[in-house]
């Protein structure tokens, strides 16, 4: 989980250069991201963590904080 | 770092070029004059499998990588911008279903789209909603078993011949994507739109929707992600293929100008020996190469799933569409009076280039996105 958070934070730092993003901070409420960000984020998640983001997962509530993103990755990559 | 096509990609490029020279170029002026794509060309595209160029082989597509898809769009665009528009919007619809569709939607539509049995189109723009895509006014209201669509879509490329539309409407005030099948859409009226400046064979239509019923199963993706995910994803492919098509238009302008500059004599020598003509040719050569490199980079990043591919596609489309305008403008200038007459294709390239600077995001929308992205990166 912590390793994934590091990767997520590194990706997000491209968009939040001068802001130290907290694990529970709402990244959409900060106003730094544009309309393309959601696509970029999904591509990052799929490539970095080798998972598929299904249309039903495409809810900003799943992606709005580092903790939620890490939980989402954990849930999608859990080995059955 | 290595920037070169693989042997397979080079082989495809040569076959695409041969196809365009044989089956597209000879029809392009007719498409422009008649404001439609000929049946012969459509049949050839289908026979070659190009309507499935963007789809995986599991659905009957060609399974091409995105660089090779780009090469196809360059060569088809070199022949006729309107035919390239067909590949673009059909691909946007097909990839929208591939990315966001249910298993049933994919099984029902993708093999038919790959084989050309069904033509797809993308119905987003409206009389009052262009660049502000989320501002569409078409509505979807819930009814027993599905939704009723009401509103108007305008400037819909290939709308005259499409069998299936990805259509965007406000559902409970949230932009949502729907599949609308023309054959089962009572209340849908398709009106031809003619008289365009360029890409005149694009068979553009206005769609009037009057209580058009679509079943629940035709909601694409889920409620509220129509623009933020579905449309932006489709438009990314659209932008990418338009960018490549612009290179085709620019390449055609360059090739016509090189031939003309060697053949046309004034003051006892070919005009190509004039240094002011050489200056224009130099700008054309370097501009085409620059645009192609940007497109190749965007394609490579798409093939490896890199999130940077999205902004690089914006960069590529911005530059390539301006390049097509500059290069085709030079081509008209080099051709002199001939460049201003419909008997010479550079006149058409010049008109087609302008269309491509507006569709899939105007240059000004690109400037907003690209500049903000650059400022954000500091």
TrEMBL record, chain A:
Alphabetized SUPFAM superfamilies for the sequence: ACP-like
Top-rank taxon, per record: Bacteria
Coiled coil, from the record: none
Pfam families: PP-binding
Domain Carrier residue range list: 1-77
Protein name (database record): Phosphopantetheine binding protein
TrEMBL record, chain B:
GO MF annotation: an example: acyl-CoA dehydrogenase activity
Superkingdom: Bacteria
Coiled coil feature spans: none
Span of domain Acyl-CoA dehydrogenase/oxidase C-terminal: 229-374
Keyword list, A-Z: FAD, Flavoprotein, Oxidoreductase
Domain Acyl-CoA dehydrogenase/oxidase N-terminal: residue ranges: 7-117
Name of the protein: Acyl-CoA dehydrogenase
Domain Acyl-CoA oxidase/dehydrogenase middle positions: 121-212
Cofactors: FAD
Family to which this protein belongs: Belongs to the acyl-CoA dehydrogenase family.
Pfam families: Acyl-CoA_dh_1 (PF00441), Acyl-CoA_dh_M (PF02770), Acyl-CoA_dh_N (PF02771)
């Amino acid at each position: 989980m912590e390793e994934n958070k590091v990767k997520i934070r590194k990706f997000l730092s491209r968009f939040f250069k001068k802001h130290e993003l907290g694990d529970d901070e709402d990244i959409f409420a900060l106003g730094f991201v544009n309309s393309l960000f959601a696509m970029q984020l999904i591509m990052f998640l799929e490539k970095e963590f080798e998972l598929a983001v299904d249309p039903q997962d495409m809810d900003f509530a799943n992606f709005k904080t580092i903790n939620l993103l890490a939980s989402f990755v954990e849930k999608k990559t859990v080995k059955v | 770092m290595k920037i070169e096509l693989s042997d397979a990609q080079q082989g495809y490029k040569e076959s695409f070029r041969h196809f365009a020279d044989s089956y597209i170029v000879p029809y392009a002026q007719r498409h422009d004059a008649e404001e439609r794509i000929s049946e012969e060309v459509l049949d050839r595209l289908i026979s070659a499998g190009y309507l499935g160029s963007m789809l995986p082989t599991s659905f009957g597509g060609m399974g091409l990588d995105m660089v090779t898809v780009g090469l196809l769009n360059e060569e088809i665009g070199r022949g006729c911008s309107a035919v390239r528009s067909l590949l673009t919007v059909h691909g946007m619809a097909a990839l929208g279903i591939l990315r966001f569709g249910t298993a049933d939607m994919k099984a029902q539509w993708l093999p038919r789209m790959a084989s050309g049995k069904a033509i797809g189109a993308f119905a987003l723009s409206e009389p009052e909603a262009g660049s502000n895509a989320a501002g569409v006014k078409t509505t979807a209201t819930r009814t027993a078993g599905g939704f009723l669509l009401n509103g108007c879509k305008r400037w819909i490329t290939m709308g005259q011949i499409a069998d299936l539309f990805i259509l965007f409407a406000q559902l409970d005030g949230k932009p949502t994507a729907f599949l609308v099948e023309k054959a089962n859409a009572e209340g849908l009226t398709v009106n031809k739109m003619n008289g365009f400046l360029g890409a005149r064979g694009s068979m553009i239509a206005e769609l009037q929707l009057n209580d058009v019923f679509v079943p629940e199963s035709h909601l694409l993706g889920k409620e509220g992600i129509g623009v933020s995910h579905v449309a932006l994803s489709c438009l990314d492919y659209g932008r990418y293929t338009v960018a490549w098509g612009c290179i085709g238009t620019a390449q055609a302008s360059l090739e016509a100008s090189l031939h003309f500059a060697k053949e046309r004599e004034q003051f006892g020598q070919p005009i190509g020996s004039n240094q002011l003509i050489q200056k224009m040719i130099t700008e054309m050569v370097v501009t085409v190469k620059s645009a192609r490199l940007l497109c190749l980079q965007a394609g490579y990043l798409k093939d490896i799933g890199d999130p940077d591919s999205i902004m690089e596609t914006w960069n590529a489309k911005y530059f390539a569409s301006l390049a097509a305008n500059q290069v085709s403008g030079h081509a008209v200038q080099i051709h002199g009076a001939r460049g201003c007459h419909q008997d010479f294709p550079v006149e058409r390239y010049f008109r087609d280039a302008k269309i491509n600077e507006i569709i899939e995001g105007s240059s000004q929308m690109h400037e907003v996105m690209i500049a903000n992205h650059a400022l954000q990166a500091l």
